[in-house]
Amino acid sequence: MRLTVPHMGLLSTAYTRVLRQHGVDMQPPPAATVKTLNLGVKHSPEFACLPFKINLGNMMEALDNGADAILMPGGYGPCRFGYYGVIQEQILRELGYRFRMSTTDNPDRLSDMIDTIRDISRIKNRSDGYRVFFLILMRMAALDRATALYHYYKPREINRGDTDAVLKETVRMIDLADSYTNLFMTMPSVKEMFRSISIDKGFRPVTVGILGEIFVVIEPFANLDIEKKLGEMRVEVRRGVWLSDWLNDRFRFRPFRRNQTAYAKKLARGYLNYPAGGESIETVGKTLLFQKKGVDGVLHIMPFTCMPELVASTIINRISKDRDYPVLSMTFDEHVSEANIITRLEAFSDLLERRRNGSISRY
Amino acid sequence: MRHLSIGIPRGLLFHRHGEAWKLFFRELGFEVTVSPETNSDILKEGIRHTVGDLCLPVKTFLGHTAVLKDIVDILFIPRYVSVEQESYMCPKMIGLPDVARACMANLPPVLDPMFHVKLHGEKTVKEFAGPVAKILSLSPAAVSAACKRFLSHPEGGTSGQQRQAEDEGRGLSSAPGKMNIAVIGRPYLLFDRHLSKDLFHFIKKLGANPVYLSPDTAGIREAMAVIPKWVYWDMGKEVVAAAHLSFKDERIDGVVNVVSATCGPDSFTGDLIRKRLNQRNKPYMSLSLDEHTSDVGIQTRLEAFIDMIAKVTA
Lengths: 363, 314
Fold this sequence. Notes:
The structure holds two protein chains of two kinds. Chain A is built from 15 helices and eight strands. By secondary structure, chain A is an alpha/beta fold. In chain A, strand 7 (about 295-305), helix 14 (about 305-325) and strand 8 (about 325-330) form a beta-alpha-beta unit. Chain A is globular, with a radius of gyration of 20 Å. Chain B has two domains: about 5-150, Rossmann fold, CATH 3.40.50.11890; about 160-315, Rossmann fold. Chain B is about 50% helix and about 15% strand. Chain B has 15 helices and ten strands. Chain B has helices at about 15-25, 40-50, 55-70, 90-95, 95-105, 115-120, 125-135, 140-150, 160-170, 185-190, 200-205, 215-225, 235-250, 265-275, 295-314, and strands at about 5-10, 30-35, 75, 80, 110, 115, 180-185, 210, 255-260, 285-290. The interface of A and B includes residues 74, 85, 272 and 278 of A.
């Protein structure tokens, strides 16, 4: 059985090596390209959301490369994600692909995740299952840590491209750290590598909080590498949505980090009084938090027709008016173009810059 | 009568629970004002207040809210999260009271009790009644009792408009040569004459018999057994079940699925219906509606659809 799982940001880096060591024949999809997207778009329902289409393209390319089993997390709503697997399987079978499809219907329940791991790998012992699963979680947190450092150093770098090279190298280092001890030993050198980048120490970049639907936020292919683009415009990214936080809210592997969903729910009170699925409550709560923390503006990104984020975008638009706080919502689908994104980001960062200089009083 | 008037926008869940809501407030002694049937001015007003790509039914709902906001004391926009253990409402309905407040700055107080069976189980009615009693300063026991009487059933009584449309679409015709066309879709699209371009009536005008099937629990269970996974959106599930029943019933000659263009759940259920349920290859057409849809466009497609069935069966 050659198993493939659609990509989502750096997640595959967190599990591929570990699962391989335990006898899973992993076949990650090739990195997404325009071809991936076109394949997905061609066979998806017209108004399916962008993550669905990219996932489908991933699956097709992986199956073409020899995979014969797909693992796709599921769920029970209200967002469409929980139903992805069913529709994708139907489309792939209609196209004549032969494969085994497994879903984890409760990806937020620990026991289900452990069962999934035992199901696909050589691990039979429950406690070994826990050990491997938590190692994957810790690796994900380490990758997120490296990404956060990237956000800090990128706008300050003196030689363009230094930080990208360091990120690439540190991701590789974390990938190689295949045990708790190795991971623990690696993290100081990851930090050290970022610290060795030559930066403009006096420079105080404009800061932008990035919020929105989690796939579009963490998958550079889906958002046209928006974080790198902002970094190159010398804007510092403060990301409000992390995969390791999503995982930590459910599996509590970082006991000293607070539950982000619960926190956002508290913050959002008065604007969104009950979570409308997806990341809607995080988007609303953290927009308010970013303003309080002095972040210059919020960039809200989501797939076209995303239900939870449409609710959130309507509400943060109100927050923006009520509290004079710059918020830009951007929708991503297969038609979005590089030039469009760059132009809007430039306009937004110019606006934030001028506001900070005091040349614009109200947003 | 107490001197407070309660406004209920005629949109979204009103088409399912509206009658029950009206009875509920009358029982408590309030005057209820419902916005008039949708017309192009209401829809325009809704579009004007909307930011972003919210769907047609939500825009319409906001138009109805705008009509009421200056003439009533309190707006009733309940937050329906789930009406049973197995399913959710669509996220836009879960966030509806907050969306309404975000879209219009000067709304009167919004009464937004939460109906969430998945979370509150047995206590759903009590949790729903609590905020109502508090805001209207009534005794919680009286509100709970009224809730139990009118709202505890998930269907909670359909609106008059829906009943009328259902009557129009009820009953299969067994007259020879009379074509039965099943119309499936969400109540808030089908039974809003302005949005659906009065399609029941038009199908009749073309000489066919429109049929609206409302699946019962057994019908839903049967349909869910045919597809690989339980559809976890309340109304999406009903649409899928209605489609299943219509494809199965030999007296039905064709099926029309009416969807809102950017509807999230229906982008998926549409695919299920077309590929999974239509195994006998019955004539099937999906009509997607948005604010740019014209009467003529819908009518032309219906005409062509019915002509095609007539040619094939002749």
